[in-house]
User: Fold this.
Amino acid sequence: MIRGADLAAIVGIALGSALLVGVIGLAALRLSRRASMLVQVSIVALTGAVSVAVGMTAVARAMFLSPHDLLVSLWVAGIAAIVSLGVAVALAVTFVRQARRVRRIAEALGDGGAVEAPDGSGSELAAVADQLARTSRRLEEARTEVAALDASRRELIAWISHDLRTPLAGLRAMAEALEDGMADDPQRFHRQMRVQVDHLSDLVDDLFELSKIQSGRLALTMETVSLHDLVSDAVAELRALADARQVTIRESPRPDVLVRGDPRELGRVVGNLLINAIQYSPPGRAVSVTTHIDDSGRAVLGVVDQGGGIPPEDLERVFEAGWRAAASRTPDAGGTGTVWGRSSGAGLGLAIAQGIVVAHDGEIRARNVEGGSRFEVLLPQATAA
Ligand code: ADP
Assistant:
C-alpha cells in the first residue's frame, strides 16, 4: 500500500516531469511547424514516451523505485515507445498520402484539368478531397457552359453582322446612285431606302430587346391577361400577312384562360409564333391557335402549322439567338426583312419569345406534329385575387 503522502509526492514528481517534457515537446513542435507531418507526429509520440521515462527516473531518484525496478520499467517504456512511434509513423504516412492527393486535386483544379473523386476513407482529409473533386466537376461544368455561351455569342455577332451588311450595302449603292444622278426613278429608290432603314431599325430594336432579356433588365408590367384577347389582337394584326401568303388562321382560344403577365410582351410572343407559322407554311395551308389548361394547371397556348415541320436535329436549336435553319439563310429564302414591326429571318424571334416566357416563369417548347410543327407556351394561370 502506498501512503497518501508518498502518492502525492509521486503524482507531483510525475506531473512536473510530464509538464517539463510536454513544454519541450511543444517547443519542438513549434520549431518544426514547417516540417513534414511525419516529423510532427513522431515528436508527439516521442514526447509521451520520454515523459514516461523522465517521470520514472525522477520517481526512482526520490527513492520510490529501486534501480532494478527502474531498469525494468525503462525497458518496458522503451519498447512501448518504439511500438507507438511505429504506429504514429504509419498514421503520418496515411496523412501524408492523403495530403498529397488533396494537393494533386487542388493543382488539377488550378490547371483546369479533370479531377477524380478520391476513394472514400472517411477522414477529414478524404472529405476535403471529395469536396474538391465535386467543386472541380462544378467548375468544369461552369467552364463548359461559359465556353458554349461565348461560342453562341460569337456566332450571333457573326450572323448579325452578316445580316447588317446586305441592307447597308444596298443603302450605300442607292445613296451613291442618287448622288451621281444615276437613279432613273428616284422615288423608287427613296421607297427602297425607307424599307431598308425600317428593317435595320427593327433589327436593332430586336437586338436591344434580346440584350434586355439576357441581362435581366426586361421590365414587366404585370396584370391579368386573357389569352383569348392576346390571340385575337395578334391574329387581327397578322391577318393581312396571312392573306397575302394565302394562309388561313384558325383561331380557337377556348376555353379562355387568364394568366398574369405583361400584355405587350406576351403579345409579342404570340405574334412571333404566328409570324413564323405563317411564314413557314406553304400557300393554301392553315395555322391554328388553341388554348387549354394542362394536367398541372398551367395555361397552354398552342400554335400549330402545316409547314412540314422542323428537322429533329434543329428542334433543339430553334430558340438559340441568331440561329435559323440553313435553308433560311440562302438568298432564295428571301433573306432578312421586316414583318409586323420586327426583324424577320434574323433568327431572333424565338430567342426573344423564349426570354419573355421564361421571365414570366413559363416554358416554351417546340415539336413536330403531323404535317408541321407545334409551338407551345406554358404559363402559370392568374390566381383569383
Ligand atoms: P426567324 O426570324 O429567322 O424566323 P426565329 O427565331 O423566329 O427567327 O426562328 C428561328 C428558325 O427556326 C427559323 O429561321 C426557322 O428555320 C425555324 N422555325 C421557326 N419557326 C418555324 C416553323 N413554324 N416552321 C418551321 N421552321 C421554323
In short: Residues 328 and 334 are 8 Å apart (CA to CA). Residues 272, 276-277, 280, 305, 307, 310, 318, 323-325, 328, 344-351, 373 surround adenosine-5'-diphosphate (CB under 6 Å).
